[in-house]
Amino acid sequence: MRREGKELYIVAGGEGAQGTIANGNVTVPTYTWKVALVLDRPGAAVTQNTQTIAIRMPNNNSVRGRDWTDYLVTVDRIESSTGFDFFSAVSNSIESTIESRVYNPNSNGGFTPTPTPTPTPPNPGFQPRLSIRSLLPNPSGNESINEAAEIVNEGNTSVNLTGWKLKDNANTTWSLDEIGTLGNNQSGTIRRNNQRMALNNSGDTIQLIDPFGNVVDTVTYRNALTDRAIFFA
């Protein structure tokens, strides 16, 4: 891209912790990530057509032999798990657009983004029966890593949780993408892993939100005890 006259702004970092090296002075991240903003030419304005590239990959041997494009995500996904707010200097409408798209390297020479596919509306009458089964707001160790939520599918149809999220009273969120697909009566647990939303030990109200913005379930809890999961009927 740079050879073709593009101007790139790149930020990279780590997320989570899976131990330390150098006598405890360096934290080994669970994931590594990189976010790039690609301008058509040096000094060009950022518009809704401006290209962004975001990559998030596990920091382990599972990435060997795989192409980097296997780990493409939206900028929104990186923000959700790190708490950073990228591209905040541009207007909200432009920021929302460029951060919600997944880079497509095969589209128009690789510079024009492809929007994240809009979720297909379910069949008429279909209502996902997903709920929040349990929350772990006060785990031992690092709470920003170890807080956890369990989601259960009580319906007869499998549901892919890509685009689903949890939201608290402060309107911060957890992405549930990593749970994947839940079959009938199947549950999945996801740890916080530095996502922006925290499960407050003193209590909170948590909503389960589908990809269309609908509130599917709401739970409220009070005064979380250490290492005690809170279960909901």
Features:
Immunoglobulin-like, 4-stranded antiparallel beta sheet, 18 strands, mainly beta, 233 residues, 3 helices
Structure overview:
It is built from three helices and 18 strands. With about 230 residues, it is mainly beta. It is globular and about 60 Å long.
End-to-end separation in angstroms reads 53 Å
Anisotropy-based shape = globular
Q: What is the CATH H-level superfamily of the largest domain?
A: Extracellular Endonuclease, subunit A
Sheet with the most strands?
4 strands, antiparallel
Q: Per CATH, which architecture of the largest domain? A: 3-Layer(aba) Sandwich
Strand content: 25-35%
Helicity level? under 10%
Q: What is the number of E strands?
A: 18
Total domain count? 2
Can you summarize this structure?
This protein has 233 residues and is mainly β. The chain is built from three helices and 18 strands. The radius of gyration is 19 Å and the shape is globular.
Write the layout of secondary structure elements.
Elements: E1 7-15, E2 20-21, E3 26-27, E4 31-39, E5 51-58, E6 72-73, H1 75-82, H2 92-99, E7 101-102, E8 114-115, E9 130-136, H3 143-146, E10 148-153, E11 159-160, E12 165-167, E13 173-175, E14 181-182, E15 187-191, E16 203-209, E17 215-222, E18 230-231
Antiparallel strand pairs: 1-4, 2-3, 4-5, 5-6, 7-8, 9-10, 9-18, 10-15, 11-14, 12-13, 12-16, 16-17
